[in-house]
Amino acid sequence: MNAVAEPGPRPLARRAAQGFLFALIAGVIFQCLNVSVKALAQELPPLLVAWGRWLTGLVLIAPFVLRDGLGGLRTRDLKLHGLRAIFHTSGYALWYSAVALIPLATTAALSFTGPIFVTLGAALFLGETVRWPRWLAVGAGFVGVLVILRPGLAAIEPGALIMLLAVPLIAGSNLVAKVVAGRDSPAQVVFWQSAFGVLCFAPFGLWFWQTPTATQALLFLAAGLTGTVAYFFMIWAFRLLDISAIQPLTFLGILWATLFDWLVFDSLADGWTFVGAAIIVAATTFIARRESAARAQRSG
């Protein structure tokens, strides 16, 4: 009797597994980027750090895009890349300012509020109907933020407030990135992101210019390399999965951030940060599940 071969993994299951793996790798590398940025921003103006990070990133990605000539720069929608640059550069200008002031774990915890701001934006600016369970989840998410900040009970870190301003802008950037990831190759998406980043931050980088030391130059190279590689993996993940499916994996960022806080900066966020993060994670996970179910229902 001939043995019957076991069927291989289903294409959708394999696609999901690859998407989750890429998102997981991106999350770890993003924290490596944050380590480089935090080390630089403690010594140099944050906007100079942002310019240097995108400049080194552009130098690293350009050979991959231009290996077949200028045709590699061709994009299906330059306007969308430009729109994303507005969100991305403004959001990360704030992010780089915040990361120098607060622990990486606090940065990660506050970044989890992205889906909350997306829900608010959809209701306020797009006229989307948001039912009361999602409003409760939004409210719970902001309770988590209050637990982290503890206004009236502890001095509010300016870096935490700056980070909260950065999150909705970066969430907008990710939404546009999901669209362009389906139209252009990952190399093209990362190239145009880097090119617009260099262009937008150039005036500030030149204004705040300080000649970097050898160590700082290596950190700029590390920031450009880790940032470029992380975005490659994230764009690949966006091409395979919905943002709502990837969202739960981003919550692991607080684990990597806590580890790097301890290993590199010899500091730890206080316990309230993790309590607040847990509340925000629960709220945003609920929002992601509701959005995924609603999307599935609309698609029949």
Short structural description:
This protein is mostly helical.
Main attributes of the structure:
0% strand, 12 helices, globular, disordered N terminus, 77% helix, mainly alpha, single chain, 300 residues
Give a verbal description of the structure.
- There is one protein chain.
- By secondary structure, this protein is an all-alpha fold.
- The protein contains 12 helices and no strands.
- The protein has one domain (20-64, 74-298).
- The chain has helices at 11-41, 46-65, 78-99, 104-111, 114-125, 132-149, 158-181, 186-207, 214-240, 243-250, 253-264, 271-298.
Ordered list of secondary-structure elements with their pairings:
Elements: H1 11-41, H2 46-65, H3 78-99, H4 104-111, H5 114-125, H6 132-149, H7 158-181, H8 186-207, H9 214-240, H10 243-250, H11 253-264, H12 271-298
How much helix is in the residues?
Answer: over 70%
Number of strands: 0
Q: The biggest beta sheet, please?
A: none
- Indicate the proportion of strand residues: under 5%
Q: Please, how many domains?
A: 1
Mass-distribution shape: globular
Distance between the termini: 44 Å
